[in-house]
Please model this.
Amino acid sequence: MNRVLIIGAGGVGRVAAFKCAQHRDVFQQITFASRTKSKCDAIVQDIHAHGWQEEIRTETVDADNVSELVALINDVKPNLVIHVALPYQDLTIMDACLETGVHYLDTANYEHPDTAKFCYAPQWAYQERFEKAGLLALLGSGFDPGMTNVYTAYARKHHFDRMETVDIIDCNAGDHGYPFATNFNPEINIREVSAKGRFFENGTWHETEPLAVKKIFDFPDGIGPKDIYLLYHEEMESLTKHFPEIRRMRFWMTFGQSYLTHLKVLENVGMTRIDPVMFEGREIIPLRFLKALLPDPASLGARTKGKTCIGCWITGEQRGQSKNYYIYNVCVHEECFTETGAQAISYTTAVPAVLGAKMILTGQWNGCGVFNMEQFDPDPFMNEIGSWGLPWIEILPEKGSPTSEVFT
Ligand code: NDP
Model:
């Protein structure tokens, strides 16, 4: 009997709960907990309205509080916690999993609320404790990080003897009709985008000013050419560690002009600050105040039209021949909404999370310690992810074509 506890009832938590309900053969007992229980209840009602009549227990939990988490886990007795609340709670939930003897999975690496910086060190530091406890912690099991790590491992296994460069390219070509909104948690999103860019080349990390490096990439499936901007993203840290042959690694994301203009103004007036400021006799954090004003990403589903396209462009060699390889998924916002009531960013994050959970519960991925996705055999994951809603396409672009020139 597999019992799973999902924590976090935002956009990603909604899709995770839907997907667990759709795969009752794997997840026989589901508990859904968040800071606000009514959000879990509303999602469960919607799951039932979509025709999935499974019983899902809902609970309140403050995941910043280890003893509350431990009490809930001891009551529910899950085999695995799927953590899709915020990166601030990674360590408290890992602590609670260790204390109760339960496997752990998340989609984003730890960040301290007071410092807009993320790296794997605080979570990799749990390696020995998870190993000794005979437990598995799977880190970054979303799309990017997550699916992109599996794509890279799959490419290395089937297409390359040696990878030379990896460029991860994330395009959201969807339109929600607002002049400015973020498609996942606004606080986490704005912290990520307004940070300095960083990429890896010849064994060293190089820093750039935020969004200072831009290219144009011609996306497939009718999406067409879009501006892409260089960002730092967490999967580069684990992929360059686990595939030390990679000479250069970069991460790119599309942004529309309206988003960039609004972001610049918000930065210029201090609204993206994360340090406390005094306002009418009390301290507020401007970015948290801004989050309260912006549309809730979980509410964007009904308004968002268009596609996402996220994938990896990899160069290297196989049997002495140099090679270009592009693997990607295209996801349609409207289809995600019809299936789960969420937009494609929540969908593309939660589907790999729930399939990652299946890999652990069925023992197809096993081990004791803290793991990133690329450390496991990509094949069982790739064999199933298409039927779970995220089919993938691979192409071998010819060298010298206009698109291949962007990344060589
Ligand atoms: P949302 O802000 O929509 O949802 C977060 C949820 O977590 C909210 O329901 C919130 O509850 C709950 N929560 C926050 N703090 C606590 C707490 N202390 N205890 C319990 N519950 C809490 O975020 P998203 O759903 O958009 O994103 C979820 C996660 O997915 C984030 O970590 C994000 O970084 C990650 N992500 C990963 C991606 C990937 O590809 N790897 C892509 C996109 C997102 P309440 O509403 O009651 O406050």
